[in-house]
Amino acid sequence: FSACLNYVPSVLPYQKGNVWKDALGYMFKPKIFFSDKAILDDSQSLMEYTGVTVAGADEGTSISLGYFGDNYVDFGFFMFIPIALIGFFIGFVYKFFLTKALNKIWGYILVIPLFSSIGYFETSLVKKIMPLLTYLIIVFIFMRLVVPAIDKNLRINVKRG
To answer: How confident is the model at residue 161 (pLDDT cuts 50, 70, 90)?
Structure first.
């Protein structure tokens, strides 16, 4: 990240939202329909925004700038606004599933996978947002269609005892 701070904007200008645009564009282009869709190579992005040469996907590794760095490259000091919005969105999703689930037990069962889907600080923007949206869609459908049937079956079996 410190190499990025030295490189952007002195050598490469801020991207003004292009990193976010590319991340969202990548997510909403299924490989089945866009066969020319590039493979994610975090190392390539890191080299582009830091000027530092590192091993890439062709060498069997992937080194990410992280979503903090991605947001800095896009917005400079204002990087904290989208980072805060990501945090608020994760908090909203967490609260939504805890409060809208059939009961608190199901709420906690549904939010546990959230923590693995949001990744870590060193996760790139596209690898942070894509799993979060996938989690949101799958768990919402699961909560609405599957949980009520399982819960009903469990309650019947507990009464039979």
So the answer is: low
